[in-house]
Design a protein that fits this description.
2 strands, two-stranded antiparallel ribbon, single chain, mainly alpha, 6 helices
């Protein structure tokens, strides 16, 4: 009996592309001391100085405990300053000069990757425009809110 050919899955295609491009981004961030997660967290902190750990976790789709651990690493590496880092008080997270420099350099490198993707797959690049700002509804069984 011949193997049945599987139909095309846009979800699988998107996941494959995502994995490839996340690896590319990780490679260009590595010498800056950043990972894709650190870059994203740093961007959230930069965009909203004084952001709470709860809000940072929500925006990053991670737990508050994971956000605390990640921010501690960013603080230890000099990318972020927490002016009230003691138990029982709200944190005042701010990007340091080192963090600002790393973000600026990372954004240059990201723009180069964006140009590469747009040149190689212009239709895909155009189709993705705006989706991170207004995501497509996700099936409720996947455990996410629908928009």
């Amino acid at each position: 009996m011949a193997a049945q050919q599987r139909r095309f899955s846009p979800v699988i295609a998107l996941l494959t592309m995502s994995s490839i491009w996340e690896a590319q981004l990780g490679a260009v961030l590595k010498d800056l001391g950043l990972t894709t997660r650190k870059y994203a967290l740093l961007g959230h902190i930069y965009g909203m100085p004084g952001i709470s750990f709860s809000e940072l976790a929500r925006r990053s789709q991670i737990t508050v405990q994971t956000a605390h651990t990640a921010v501690r690493t960013l603080v230890d590496e000099g990318f972020v300053h927490d002016s009230t880092a003691h138990a029982g008080s709200a944190s005042e997270l701010r990007v340091t000069a080192k963090g600002d420099w790393a973000l600026t350099e990372a954004e240059k490198r990201l723009r180069a990757l964006d140009r590469e993707l747009s040149k190689g797959a212009p239709e895909l690049s155009q189709a993705l425009r705006g989706l991170h700002e207004e995501p497509v509804e996700v099936h409720p069984a996947a455990g996410r809110r629908t928009a």
